[in-house]
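Pipeline run #58 for the internal structure catalog. This entry was flagged by the ingest filter as a single-chain record with no existing model, so it goes straight to prediction. Upstream metadata was stripped on purpose; only the residue string is passed forward. Reviewer on rotation: M.T. Logging verbosity set to normal.
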Amino acid sequence: MAELPYACTNFESLRNSGMIYVDKTDLIYDIARLKIPYFLTRPRRFGKSLLLSTLESIFSNGTKYFKDLKIEKLWKEQNTYKVIRLDFSSLTYDDPASFDRGIKEKLLDYVSKYKLPVVKRKDNRSAGETLSMIINSVPTDTFVLLIDEYDHPLTHSLDDKELFSSLRNYLSGFFGAIKSDVGRLRFFFMTGVGKFAKASVFSQLNNLLDISQSAKYAALLGYTEEELRFYFNDHVCNAAKLLHVTYEQIYTELKNYYDGYRMTEDSSKQVYNPWSCLSFLLHPENGFRNYWYETGGAYPTIIAKYLRSIKETPLESLLGVKITKDDLNTFYDYFEVPTVSLLYQTGYLTIREEYNELYKMNQLVLSPPNLEVKSALAKLYLMEIRKEKIGVDDIHLSEVLRADFAEHNYSNMEAHFNIILNNFGYDNKVAFADERNCRDFVDLALCVGGLYTRKEVVRAKGRADLVVELPDERFIFEFKLSKNKSDEVLLNEASLQLKEKKYGEILPIKRINRIAVVINSKKKGISFFKLLKE
């Protein structure tokens, strides 16, 4: 099998070693052929650094390393260019002065590389002033400037408001120093995770073309379903062999865990998280884990703060946030109440469309893209509302829940659902106020346990409360919370609803198990848990 490009962010090294390279160079050509300054946001570990390395190679060496790739026949430029590539995530940022020194050292290395006698190492110019001098020392269209992870110093200094503010002011000054010079560049491309308010980057560089929301480049980073099957099929078959399942079961679980990122409103195209896919395929014996979340760096801190701001509301406010198009590109400031755009830009929520029955039209909604992210959010949410970490008992409960579904042990399943409602929901004032809240706590626990769930799954005749998907079968739950009606009446209503509306009869076709659940609000527990006979 061809080697997986795991953790490889250098395009030329990847090509020289024969690693798998997912060819998106037709899109890269479409960007690089024009003299336009670009900006792109994508979640961490989605391939931004490899993209910039690829751009660096095409501008530095032409098509030398692009044999048999799409761009080889498209790229007609005979010139090569002097490329300056700055990765802000590789620099120290203990204070603005050390950050500035780090950038300047990188720039001076390029002065030596390109033999530019314009800057002395011991002068007093800032990094921004030094970069401006370098750009102006040569004819127009000589340099290409690539800046990776411009916001890394900000996202990794969130626990120090003074440092954060000083770095934000520094970035404003840095980009202000080169504002008038960008037009002299042959090409400029900058990446980041999000858009920080008050950073002034986007007022200083007000001619940047932000392609983050462009449908044309929705699949520029990440793997599409077609790419995953074309480039990685040998590794998927290897995983199936090691885990003693079919290769289609591996594809199903890859989709459940790592697919679902819809980057733009105008494109229905979804992509897989490349880091998580490669991590699994490299060591499939470790199973489907939360690889992306486990390397989260500073971001769980951001998300936890957001969760604290909504903890008194039902979980629906996190797992199905109604938005407008403007919300997707909203700038955010960590030290103010965060907006949902923060969760979208950092990859914890993604775009969905949901039919609004009131207005008879589709509406944009943000929700977790897949089981990996939903499970991570569930753990964080539980930690915030319970003020304690997910413990051994919770992990054990997760394991036995998976066994309950695999073995069709409905008596155990009922007992464990009751434990969930008592452990997760008893002290929360909204837990038993509405049947949706009870369902959400069950859904949370199932997600923590690594079970793939969906809520309010639409059918022509209605919406199923909760659907649990296994590779070859589907469990459909209809929840009822008794307040004014008797438990028996609600059981009959739930059973009739499940039968008449044929919940679960969706693609792909699977064996269906329909279960009516009645919860007594006064007793705070399940009074009926009934598997319907077909």
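catalog note: The chain has three domains: 11-212, 225-289, 390-534.
catalog note: The chain has a mean pLDDT of 85.
status: ready for reviewer M.T.
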